[in-house]
Amino acid sequence: MNDSERKPLRLRFLGSLVEQLGAQLYPGATATIAELISNAWDADARTVWIDLPLGTAWAEDDEITVVDDGIGMSYDDAENRYLLVGRKGRVELSRDTSEGGRPLHGRKGIGKLAAFGTARIMECLTVDRSSETTSFRLDYDAIRSLDPSDDYRAESAQGDAALRDPEGNDLAHGTRITLSALRPRRALNEQQFRRSLARRFALDADQMRIVLNGEDIGRFDLDLDVRFPEDGFLLGDC
């Protein structure tokens, strides 16, 4: 049998690819949370609220939630954009900015897998500007065991079906990501974690407000210790 008589060869992917693209590329909580904040930025959110355990070791029944008041996603957006691994929005949209004119953070189309560096279950509840609500649940272990011939069918979300901020106020649109079945981790130092996020997102509150466990993360300001020579500078020194 020659090549012309055979079926075309196929390039296939095992579900374990999610480990290399998720758990290994985003091994720490900072990288995971930063990716979710970037998603909120790209969705033109004015505020993103983060709630996660700090100062104590993580238990498996702990949860992390990230809520934003961005533009949210429709069912079609979730199906054909968010859940399409490798989709490059910049190329598809032929622009480098969000609808609101912000420089887009997303580049490679794999950031949605960042959750699996920290948790085994990710639930998403999202409401778009037309009030269409979409929710789904991704299970790391189920995805990882996929056969190359199968697509992963997202499960139904099990969490609260209403989108609210941490104070219980209803949000007209936006997205809530809930991470559960957390990977055991030593206690995260709150001050260091805040400082790390502030370094990554040097934003003023009027650009996007970032709230961690009920307290705003301020713009990162680097402390500098500058000393000038007593005799001043010579032109050649500059």
What would you note in describing this structure?
The protein has 238 residues and is an alpha+beta fold. It has a single domain, classed as Heat Shock Protein 90 (2-Layer Sandwich). The protein has helices spanning 17-23, 29-42, 75-82, 89-93, 140-144, 190-200, and strands at 47-51, 64-68, 119-127, 133-139, 174-182, 209-212, 215-216. A seven-stranded mixed sheet has the order 4-3-5-2-1-6-7. It is globular and about 65 Å long. The model has no long low-confidence stretch (mean pLDDT 82).
Task: Give me a quick take on this structure.
With about 240 residues, the chain is α+β, with helices and mostly antiparallel strands. The chain has helices spanning about 15-25, 30-40, 75-80, 90-95, 140-145, 190-200; strands at about 45-50, 65-70, 120-125, 135-140, 175-180, 210, 215.
Question: Main traits of this protein?
Answer:
238 residues, alpha+beta, Heat Shock Protein 90, seven-stranded mixed β-sheet, 7 strands, globular
